[in-house]
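Quick check before the chapter quiz. The format below is the same one you will see on the exam, so make sure you can read both the input and the output lines.
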Amino acid sequence: MSTAIRANTVLPARREPITLHTADDLRLIGELALPEQRAPKATLVCLHPLPTHGGMMDSHIFRKAAFRLPALADLAVLRFNTRGTASEAGRSEGSFDGGDSERYDVAAALEYAEFNDLPDVWLVGWSFGTDLTLVHGLDPLVRGAILISPPLRWSTEDHLRAWAESGKPVHALIPEFDDYLRPDEARRRFATIPQAEVTGFPDTKHLWVGKAEEALDAIVRVVAPDVATPLPDTWDGPSETRQVTIVGS
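Here is the expected output.
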């Protein structure tokens, strides 16, 4: 019997809480979700929106990615709270540092992925997380970057040029009605990176409310192009419904 996949539907996966250890001796709360019975095709390391404005590992696109993509696309999803950020899973040690000391948080996540032999690692940033990706994420382990609603607040032309020189793929997902960077301006700004692909999303705003499925489809098309999209909206098999408590940072 088919079950409709809704916002709080949790599909089968191997899920485990994880702790990331930073070079400046902090412990960060996180979770790794893996396909239940197969090796992952690729890995998403998720960098969440601004914690001072409610961003966390449970921000809805990343929560739905962890709930669905291990089953629907055979992807590993690693999400975590950056320093000082709280979610239902707990609060990471430390305090928000405006994207500076968070370099150690990004490095800790990549170190975890490398130590655990997670394959084909992509950084998926959303809003603040896109600046962390562009500023701190250009690591040999990283296959490429997916940028959801990038404000380019802390990312400079030097950071963009570094990604250009790396040749690594960059995919920018830009809402039509974004508060910070809209498609035409995004194409101009990302022209510094010749290999960057900028995709506009009609009738979408910065927070992607009601549009998470479009974001997940776009992510899957990049990292697992052999998986058909749009992803299914029903599931034949066991599933759970989980109400997530949103915790303020």
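If your answer matched, good. The CA atoms of residues 107 and 145 lie 15 Å apart.
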